[in-house]
Specification:
This protein has 202 residues and is an all-alpha fold. It is built from 8 helices and no strands. The protein has one domain.
């Protein structure tokens, strides 16, 4: 990949990484699997990542056709995506993330871990926006590589969640979550600005 594709792939990686928030997912994962064995935690970790990858991949492939059939333009999608990402960023900054518990009798890897916690509305909208922005095979490859890298980091964070928790402590994870929220808010504002610019040009 050339410089432009690398920059595009880096933007995809950073955006999805901040939205999916691997470190912020660790305490939620631990709370949902508190009564499970180590083997069960390992199984739930890869199942949750697989479900999230499948959901995001499906929207990456079919989301553009759905938007085209509805007549939704890229600036409109960027504007709505930016506002949605801003809401997610505010939740990260204010610490208003929901942490459901008491779900020992269900496969938490499907719901709520795989979706909507990991593959939530913010990640889905961001993926569709990047697919709409992609030009050619190189950009598409950059999206695939960036998505795979984020999912790999997510799996590592969940797989070694106890180690991450002991190293960073709750205060460290909270600090990083706030930083991710600040970065995500900047990305959201940039998307809204690009949407306004697109509407003006259109």
């Amino acid at each position: 990949m050339h410089g432009d594709e690398l920059r595009f792939g880096s933007e995809v990686f950073v955006t999805l990484f901040v939205i999916m928030d691997p470190l912020g997912t660790v305490p939620i994962f631990l709370s949902l699997t508190a009564t499970r064995s180590h083997a069960a935690r390992r199984r739930l970790a890869w199942q949750a990542v697989a479900v999230a990858g499948g959901v995001i991949g499906a929207f990456a492939i079919f989301g553009q056709q759905l938007l085209s059939s509805l007549g939704i333009t890229l600036p409109a999608l960027q504007g709505s995506g930016g506002l949605l990402l801003l809401l997610v960023a505010l939740e990260l900054l204010t610490g208003r993330n929901e942490q459901p518990t008491g779900m020992d009798d269900v496969n938490v890897a499907l719901v709520p871990l795989g979706t909507p916690l990991i593959a939530g509305p913010g990640a889905i909208v961001a993926t569709i926006v990047f697919v709409r922005q992609a030009h050619g095979v190189a950009d598409a490859l950059a999206i695939v590589v960036a998505m795979a890298a984020v999912l790999l980091v997510l799996y590592a964070a969940l797989r070694f969640s106890l180690v991450v928790w002991r190293l960073l402590r709750p205060s460290g994870i909270q600090l990083l979550t706030r930083i991710f929220g600040l970065l995500l808010s900047a990305i959201a504002v940039q998307l809204v600005a690009e949407a306004v610019r697109g509407f003006i040009k259109g």
